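TICKET #2291
ISSUE: user wants both folds in one file
ATTACHMENT 1:
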Amino acid sequence: MSQKLVSTQDLVVWVNKKRLPMAQVEALSGMTRQGIFKRLKAEGRFIPRRAKDGAPGVYVRVDCAWCGLPVKRRKKLLMQLDTLRSFCNQVCYAAALENPSYVEWRQGSRLAQTVVGQHFRLRPGYVVHHKDGDQRNNDRSNLMVFASIADHTAHHRGRKIKPLWDGAV
C-alpha cells in the first residue's frame, strides 16, 4: 500500500472539526492511528475527544506540598484523587514521605492491635495506624484502624481516607 500525502490541516479538519471515526480518517489518509496522533501532537493541534466540547482539560496552579514552587495540574485529576497535595518532582515527593518522628518498635503493632481489640473488633486485613508515628505510644487516642493496606498507604500519601475506627473520637 502506498502512503498518501495528506496535509496536517486536512487531518485537523477530519479529526477535530468533522469528528470522523478514526477508521475513516485512516482510510482517507493512508496512515495508522498512531501516525495520525503523532503528526497532530507534533504540530500541537491534537485535541482529545474525551474532553468536553473538544476543549483541552482545565489546568490549575497549585504549590508543591514540599518546596512551595508552583505546579500545573489538571483540575479534574485533583478532584478525582481528592487531594490537594501535588509535588513538582520525585525528590520533593520522596522528601515529603519521610517521617522524622517515626519510631520503630518490634512489638508496637502487636500491642496496638491488643489495645484496639478491646474497643473495636479487628478483622484480617485491617491495619492499625499510629497517628504520631511512635509505635511505643499505644494510647487509644493515638490509634486509628484502616480497612486495608491500600487505605493506610493512601492516608500516608495525603488522600482523605476515612478510618474504620478512630480512637480519639
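ATTACHMENT 2:
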Amino acid sequence: MKIHTATLGVVEATPESFLTLPEGLVGFEEHKEFVLLTLSDYEPFRWLQSFSDPGLSFPLLDPSGFVSGFEPALGETDRLALGLEPGELHEVYAIASVAENGVGVTLNLRAPLVVNPRKRTARQVVLADSRWDVQHPLVTQRSAASTTARVANGL
C-alpha cells in the first residue's frame, strides 16, 4: 500500500506495519491509526506516520541500543491496555527530536512508545521513574551530523 506523507514523500507500507494507538499520543490523542515505517535512508531511525494526517510523523529509535539500562517497567494497566500476556515480548521505542542545526538528538525516555507486535497495538506509557528524561541527549557530536541531518530534513 502506498502512503502519501508530507515529510517522507510516498512510501510503501504493508498491513504488518500498521499500528493502532487507542489513546493516541500525548498531545495528539485524536490520531489513532499509524504505520511504523522502516526506511533504509534513515536507519537506525524508524518513523511513526499518522494515516489521518500526512504531515504528522515522528522519528523513533529503539533506546536499548543507545541508553544503557533503559528497561521501562510496565504496570498492569499498561499490559492490559496493550493486550500483553504475562511474559509476552513487546517492542519499545523512544520519540526522537533533532535539533534545528541537525547535530543534536534527544530521546523522550519518560514517555516511550510500547508496541504489542502480535496485536499491532501501541501505547505511549508515561513513566513515573524520574531517572528518565523527556529530552535525554543522544547525539551531540558533529560525527553524527549526516544521519541526523537526513532525519531533520524529513521532519
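RESOLUTION: both attachments delivered.
EXTRA DETAIL ON ATTACHMENT 2: Residues 140-145 have pLDDT under 50 and may be disordered.
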